[in-house]
Write a sequence for this structure.
């Protein structure tokens, strides 16, 4: 019977064979590693997301989806992110001995 509160069916621990569980575990590990590599190669992502979340918390828009669409399609956003990246790199270089 489905759990109507969360719209998820209860878990079935015997649904996967040991081989399937091992493949699933390997897939999860590889996916996490790939995600980590992607995030590390795109240093603008944390700045982009932090800026968006900051604006959401400050402005508290009624329609977050509409706000997100406007935020991420702002033609000045790429230059704002580039400025923040340059500033962050400058700060990191100042901290190095």
């Amino acid at each position: 019977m489905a759990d109507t509160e969360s719209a998820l069916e209860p878990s079935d621990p015997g649904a996967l064979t040991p081989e399937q569980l091992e493949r699933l575990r390997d897939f999860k590990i590889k996916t996490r590693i790939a995600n980590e590599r992607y995030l590390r190669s795109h240093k603008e992502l944390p700045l982009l997301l932090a800026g968006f979340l900051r604006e959401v918390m400050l402005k508290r828009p009624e329609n977050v989806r509409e706000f997100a669409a406007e935020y991420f399609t702002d033609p000045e956003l790429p230059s704002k992110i580039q400025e923040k990246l340059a500033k962050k790199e400058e700060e990191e270089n100042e901290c190095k001995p």
About this structure: The helical segments are 18-41, 44-59, 64-72, 77-95. Residues 83 and 91 are 12 Å apart (CA to CA). The radius of gyration is 21 Å.
